[in-house]
Automatic annotation (TrEMBL):
One of its GO terms (molecular function) is nucleic acid binding. It comes from Candidatus Nitrobium versatile. This is Release factor glutamine methyltransferase. It catalyses: L-glutaminyl-[peptide chain release factor] + S-adenosyl-L-methionine = N(5)-methyl-L-glutaminyl-[peptide chain release factor] + S-adenosyl-L-homocysteine + H(+). GO terms for biological process: methylation. InterPro entries: DNA_methylase_N6_adenine_CS, HemK-like, N5-glutamine_MTase, PrmC_N, RF_methyltr_PrmC, SAM-dependent_MTases_sf, Small_mtfrase_dom. Residues 115-194 form the Methyltransferase small domain. Substrate binds at N186, P187, P188, Y189. Its EC number is 2.1.1.297. Residues 7-74 form the Release factor glutamine methyltransferase N-terminal domain. Coiled coil: none annotated. S-adenosyl-L-methionine binds at D143, N186. Belongs to the protein N5-glutamine methyltransferase family. PrmC subfamily.
Amino acid sequence: MNVLEKLRKIAQVFEESGIENPAKEAEILIAGALPIGPSELYRGDRELSREEASFLSSLAVRRAGGEPLQYILGSVEFFGLKIHVGRGVLIPRPETELLVEETISLLAHRRPPFSILDLCAGSGCIALALAKRFPEAEVYGTDASEAAMVYATQNARENDVRNVRFRLGNLFDPVRDMRFDCIVSNPPYIRREEIRTLQREVRDFEPVEALDGGPDGSAFYRSISKGAPRHLKDNGVLALEIGYGQSREVERLIRQAGFQDIRIIKDFSGIERIITGMGNPVRSSGLTRADML
Ligand SMILES: C[S@@+](CC[C@H](N)C(=O)[O-])C[C@H]1O[C@@H](n2cnc3c(N)ncnc32)[C@H](O)[C@@H]1O
């Protein structure tokens, strides 16, 4: 069988399994699994060995069963980094790159070295992207999942990022006595009731502890707003990813915790996705964020 025939067959299986973009996913699966360039995919003259064909079939069966492509291929690109993922760790999402971008723009004019804490670090994607962008910064990532911390450590090694440390534990516990110039987080924020309505790729394969934001989805925002002032230096920055419809509640929480100069940023779909604020302002100076930049 040649590669084009296999591509068509896999696309057909994907279509029958209800996968949204069957042809595109078949293409990505084959190109990601075999050393085959995009131009070779649509040529009828690239024969597959028996081993290659059965390898592709085994991966296609997994995808048809709902397993996300990123777990099957084992990695995803995030902010120019190759991030390894697999069962037990959340797959980094494109909108989280926006959180990284906003955090970078808030820190870009500060004089290094500074320190950054990524709470709920998962695969380490946010901490690693920031550590790479600011090589003089000291970056910490914490997460309660052992599997996530194993992936994060591997991702630091494989991307040759040395100014980052990952620590296992509940939220601020692993950095109990430390203060940072910036706290960033993409915490679990799905309402518990809503988890069973998510698409099967997420609901049945991604770790529930990476999704579950408690009965109202805001449990982590309450804990973070409460803990952040104790862990931020003067004029420290807080940057959070938020879910659909959560901006008002999270704004209220962080304002109540003393954060000022709050900004809400929309994602590519027009959804309010990122919220930032400045904490522990040096009150006597009357400085605003604009003065600090
Ligand atoms: C939405 S995922 C974000 C992962 C990663 N930062 C990203 O953006 O792809 C949330 C993460 O929070 C972690 N988590 C859940 N409960 C936690 C807790 N109590 N303390 C620390 N991390 C927790 C999960 O293990 C998961 O890795």
